[in-house]
Amino acid sequence: MTTVAAYAAPAAKAPLERTTIERRAVREHDVLIDIKFAGICHSDIHQAQEGWGEAIFPMVPGHEIAGVVSEVGPGVTKYKVGDRVGVGCLVDSCRKCENCEAGREQFCLNGSVGTYNAIGKDGEPTYGGYSEKVVVDENFVVRIPEGLALDEAAPLLCAGITTYSPLKRWGAGPGKKVAVIGLGGLGHMGVKIAHALGAEVTVLSQSLRKKDDGLKLGADHYYATSDPKTFEELAGSFDLIVSTVSAPLDIGAYLGLLKTDGALVNVGAPEEPVALNLFSLIGGNKTLAGSMIGGIAETQEMLDFCAAHGIGSEIEVIAASEINEAYERVVKSDVRYRFVIDTATI
Ligand SMILES: [Zn+2]
Ligand SMILES: [Zn+2]
């Protein structure tokens, strides 16, 4: 066991504070990672505040981890000391069920193990990336290609894969009109990736406040959803809409923006249920879908894609002492576009 410094929420809704945690000794297939950067995802805040239900405390959040391998177990074949690696939302799964075999470990039928706020197969709670080091089985570690800076790569481990996976699955590419709802941590990655895939990209944001940014990130068009004319003008326009917002939306109004056979995929996770008149799905054979991160192999594919297209996250690097302030700013959507903790400051 190694004692490492970390930032933890001692209880639900309590501010995060500096503490120490134990990391297990490196086992046969484990790698020890010196964490360099950890992104702050909105879901860290939902969980630290128990917005998604009962959680495990103390909680060390963080599932956007970028670092360097500093030790490997004797059975490790994929990584060596000095490799640049990342860890996303999962650190284990059963590896035998139908979904694990298909590379969809996030839907392990026997329960995947979250990077934090979860209990590992060894019965111990998992602690996330707001810490100096982490020990992870090599099969749940991905390689960060040379072309990507570690700080800009960290948010790809959640925000990147969360948007890449549905864009790929639903065919974003040349000749397709794709809209991204919300230009935040997820949304800005959705815009960059959809653009790199060759789609015509529209941002649907509450206001035009971030329009210049959106166009710079690769959007072709930018509309304010607070303007009712937007919904008239864009009716029947899109092959695919990806919603990244975690506030309740008028889903029916957005379904009206889809072409026949279009799909609206939700990756944001509002805490409250939403109401929907199903006639808005029936007319036009529309699909309302969800998507949750991606499997390990797809996460590697996303990193390779981002490196090939020069795509990192737009970030504000902060010191660990600024985490609580950053949380308040994320809740107010006051970040362009992802906070990343420099873990050397923990
Ligand atoms: Zn996340
Ligand atoms: Zn499984």
TrEMBL record:
The keyword Plastid does not apply. PROSITE patterns: ADH_ZINC. One of its GO terms (molecular function) is alcohol dehydrogenase (NADP+) activity. Its EC number is 1.1.1.2. Signal peptide: none annotated. It catalyses: a primary alcohol + NADP(+) = an aldehyde + NADPH + H(+). Keywords: Metal-binding, Oxidoreductase, Zinc. Pfam families: ADH_N, ADH_zinc_N. This is alcohol dehydrogenase (NADP(+)). Its cofactor is Zn(2+). Belongs to the zinc-containing alcohol dehydrogenase family. Coiled coil: none annotated.
